[in-house]
Amino acid sequence: MGLRLVPKIVLWIMLTVSALGSISMWIRPEAGDSHQAEQMMLEQQMAISTASNFIREWMTWSGEETSEERGGRLKPYVNRSDVARFSVLQPARKETKQTVLAVEFVSLQRQGNGRYAVRLRAVVLNPARNIWQVEVPVRVRPEQGAAVTDLPVLLPVQEPPELPDEGEAEPHAASEVKLRMRPTIEGFLKAMCTETMPGNLANYVDSDRTLIPLQGRIQWVSLDDMHVYGSDPYTVRAMFTVRDAATGTVFPQVWKLRVKEDNQKFFVQSIG
Questions:
Q1: Share of the chain residues as helix, strand and coil, in percent rounded to the nearest 5
Q2: CA distances from residue 72 to 28, 53, 67, 68, 83 in whole angstroms, order as listed
């Protein structure tokens, strides 16, 4: 009987190994896809980071800076043989100067083989404030790094898209609700500006939530407008004016609030 069992055991072992091999074939592509997605994400992050840092340096210039100094700033982002080409600059006067205030990512286009076109918006001061839109070609090799492969292309500035407010996705609440809610919102905003302890907001905040007041760092001026969307709980967009306590400067604020109604009273659940 023992000898008769040997072929059966061998057969079962072969079947088990075969089945495990098939299962591994099913699992491996998913693991491969995950690795490929991670690799792609890494490439994109490297391309965006390299392009952004390069543009910050490339669009910064001074008539007092030598080409060697400018090349030294650009060197980490371009091939060594291209440094001189990228650093060419002929300022009109020694006093000529431009600084970069901000660089904003706009879009990314993959062009294959680790090549990307990164579109950015740069805000500069020279001495007036100006906005430029540029496209930067970048080559990425994750194991080696990324480099800008050619001079940036200056493009016409596109206006930011007109996006609807998130609250507009919900219908406006009845005007009667807005009218009843307004004193609560005004009282809450005043308390947020002036109070020092979270417990002092109890009349306006949901008992299950804790909000930290601004402790007088800004002073209340006025509630200018508010829009109420949806149904209980409501989305409230409150536009109001405040004054900076340290400098006296007056400026507007817009807060998005989540508000619930309980026994004909309104309570704020969250900000933002």
A1: 40, 35, 25
A2: 46, 14, 8, 6, 8
Q: Are 241 and 224 in contact (CB under 8 A)?
A: yes
7-21: pLDDT as tens digits: 555 455 555 545 555
The CA-CA-CA angle for residues 217, 194, 203, to 5°, reads 145
Q: Pinpoint the alpha helices (H) of 59-174.
A: 67-74, 83-86
What global pTM score does this model have?
A: 0.68
Torsions phi, psi of 228, nearest 5?
Answer: -120, 130
Helices (H), the chain: 2-58, 67-74, 83-86, 175-194
Token readout for 106 is: 């706009």
Quote the tokens at residue 90.
């002929």
Count of alpha carbons within 13 Å of 179, Cβ hemisphere only? 3
Report DSSP state, residue 165.
P
Rounded Cα distance between 243 and 44, Å, is 42
Per-residue pLDDT tens over the stretch 42-61: 999 999 999 999 999 999 99
Task: Please state the length of the chain.
Answer: 272
Contact (Cβ atoms closer than 8 angstroms) between residue 235 and residue 226: no
Long-range CB pairs of 111-117, under 8 A, 24+ apart, other chains included? 114/43, 114/139, 114/140, 114/141, 115/139, 115/140, 115/149, 116/43, 116/44, 116/47, 116/51, 116/140
Strand, coil or helix: 184: helix
User: In whole angstroms, what is the distance from residue 109 CA to residue 51 CA?
Assistant: 13
Distance between CA atoms of 167 and 180, rounded to whole angstroms? Answer: 19
